TrEMBL record:
This is N-acetyltransferase. Keywords: Transferase. One of its GO terms (molecular function) is transferase activity. It comes from Xenorhabdus budapestensis. The keyword Transferase applies. The keyword Transferase applies.
């Protein structure tokens, strides 16, 4: 049993609403909302990425999302605990990298791009994309991706951003990443393939998962 905050949709009004202590972890999972239609993805500066990830760490995904009786954890609560810890850890890495990137010399032959997912101005996810200059066959790498543990449908929008950034940079939308084992299935569902211990996405070869929109000149995950 635990208390938390959740994104709720009631009568088309979306906002933060409290969950009572009587909510079980099973109830929590049914409360999670697919927010794709309410989320905006924005490419941001390292400074804004740092601010957004710090806000997530200290406010929108603060400790009251993680209140358990640790002596009585069921399997769903164990999965929730793991998901929260992984997201929190990755957000910490994103925050640190964004801060370092804002202070460093940007002439080392690589480029880092940051994107933040916003729900009505509130940061709910972030991504770091690494692109190596002068490496023709090197795929763009999703170094870090984390989303708020109470939202569904945000990660795929961040991956869409990364695919289209790769396409924009002349790298055919191809990506690589090294996810947690527990996240592999989610990436497989987006069209990623297991290759040499990591994962790769070649969107042009996965028209069952990715469509090229001739009107917008963008890839869209389907």
């Amino acid at each position: 049993m635990f208390r938390s905050k959740s994104f709720n949709i009631n009568n088309r009004s979306v906002g933060f609403g409290p969950l009572t202590r009587s909510k079980s972890c099973s109830d929590m999972y049914t409360t999670l909302v697919n927010m794709k239609t309410f989320i905006t993805i924005k490419e941001v500066s390292p400074e804004e990425a740092f601010y957004a990830t710090e806000k997530m760490l200290t406010e929108t995904m603060a400790e009251d999302w993680f209140y358990f009786d640790f002596l009585k954890l069921d399997k769903e609560q164990e999965r929730w605990k793991m998901r929260y810890n992984q997201a929190f850890s990755i957000l910490n890495c994103l925050s640190t990298n964004a801060k370092l990137q804002s202070m460093r010399d940007k002439t080392d032959g690589s480029k880092k791009f940051f994107a933040v997912a916003y729900f009505r101005g509130i940061p709910v996810g972030a991504l770091q994309l690494l692109v190596q200059d002068n490496h023709e066959n090197e795929l763009s790498e999703v170094s870090f991706l984390a989303t708020h543990c109470g939202i569904r449908g945000c990660g795929v929008l961040l991956i869409e951003y990364a695919v289209n950034k790769s396409q924009q940079l002349g790298m055919e939308g191809k990506l690589k990443l090294s996810p947690y084992d527990e996240a592999r299935q989610a990436y497989i569902n987006m069209g990623f393939m297991n290759i040499n211990g990591g994962m790769e996405l070649h969107p042009a070869a996965r028209n069952d998962k990715w469509k090229w929109n001739k009107i917008t000149s963008r890839y869209e995950c389907c």
